[in-house]
Amino acid sequence: MTQEYDIKAMAAKIKALRTNAEALKEISGGIPAVDRNVVRILASVRMLEVDISDALKVTGK
């Protein structure tokens, strides 16, 4: 049984994660805990971007 994935929808959601994390950092007012956690979030988002871009190349979607 083959499973279908909506790679484009995933890419859009990942882009929204990046946008929201960056917006959170802008309004954080320099709160160290928020800024550090946003950096961690963005690192995870980057890994998702790499993974999904590879999947897009493989599937050609």
Task: Please outline the helices and strands.
Blueprint: H1 7-27, H2 32-59
Helix pairs in contact: 1-2
Percent of residues in helices: over 70%
Helix count? 2
Helix vs. strand class: mainly alpha
- How many domains? The number is 1
Distance between the termini: 21 Å
* Rg: 14 Å
Q: List unreliable stretches of 5+ residues.
A: none
Mean pLDDT reading:
91
The run of helices and strands is HH
Number of strands: 0
Which descriptor suits the 3D outline?
A: elongated
- Main pleated sheet: none
Describe the fold and architecture.
The chain is built from two helices and no strands. It is mostly helical and 61 residues long. It has one domain (14-59). Helix 1 (7-27) packs antiparallel against helix 2. It is elongated. The model has no long low-confidence stretch (mean pLDDT 91).
Please outline what is shown here.
The chain is an all-alpha fold and 61 residues long. The chain is built from 2 helices and no strands. The chain has one domain.
Keywords:
mainly alpha, elongated, 61 residues
